[in-house]
Amino acid sequence: MAFLVLLERLTPLGRAVFLLREVFEYEYAEISAILGQSEVNCRQILTRARKHIGAMRPRFEASQEKQRQLLEQFLEAVRTGNMDQLLSVLSDDAVLYADGGGKGFAPPEPVRGASNVARGADTFRKLIAHGLVPRIAEINGEPGIVTYVNGKPHSAMMIRTQKDRIQALYLVTNPEKLAHLRRLPDEES
């Protein structure tokens, strides 16, 4: 999901060149023919796209242990409704990106700013009170939170951190994208 967010920040032409070359391994001559651009221009567009994507990556990534601690603090703040604690783990410019795929609840646009993200997290607290079961789990090799309803995965969330705070939250509620996650054992439901 983080990769998709990075791609969204490229121009449509930059995104096309980047995907065709880096993902699908097309030659520059093929990209040139597809996009109606010269090969030289396609090379330059790719160079700019790589630089742009590289510039958006945080210089220092938090360790998995630090990410797990931030997730635990986030989850505790949500469970207790402690808005000050919640704001203390979010960077001022925090962003929540959500993917419901039209099949799960998700805000249609990114939620920007720590206070807006925190207000959205209050909805999460209400859902926990009504039976949503959150668990810290490994998602794509990183710490994340998976929530369950009646033992079935309901959502998955990962974070990106910067300077010991949560910079971005990536929430997936599309049931098709959650189908591969294991069910919660009955004794934990």
Helix content: 40-55%
Strand composition percent: 15-25%
Number of domains: 2
Q: Can you count the helices?
A: 8
Q: Under the CATH scheme, which architecture of the largest domain would be assigned?
A: Roll
Global Rg = 19 Å
Distance between the termini: 28 Å
Q: Could you list the spans in which at least 5 consecutive residues all have pLDDT below 50? A: none
Topology of helices and strands:
Layout: H1 2-8, H2 12-23, H3 28-35, H4 39-56, H5 64-80, H6 83-89, E1 90-99, E2 111-112, H7 114-129, E3 133-139, E4 142-149, E5 152-162, E6 165-172, H8 175-178
Parallel strand pairs: 1-6
Antiparallel strand pairs: 1-2, 3-4, 4-5, 5-6
Helix pairs in contact: 2-4, 3-4, 5-6
Characterize the structure shown.
The protein has 189 residues and is an alpha+beta fold. It has 2 domains: 2-56, Orthogonal Bundle (Arc Repressor Mutant, subunit A), CATH 1.10.10; 64-188, Nuclear Transport Factor 2, Chain: A. Helix content is 47%, strand content 24%. It is built from 8 helices and 6 strands; from the N terminus they run H-H-H-H-H-H-E-E-H-E-E-E-E-H. The chain has helices spanning 2-8, 12-23, 28-35, 39-56, 64-80, 83-89, 114-129, 175-178; strands at 90-99, 111-112, 133-139, 142-149, 152-162, 165-172. Strands 2-1-6-5-4-3 form a 6-stranded mixed sheet. A hairpin with a 2-residue loop joins strand 4 (142-149) and strand 5 (152-162). It is elongated, with a radius of gyration of 19 Å. The relative contact order is 0.14. The model has no long low-confidence stretch (mean pLDDT 85).
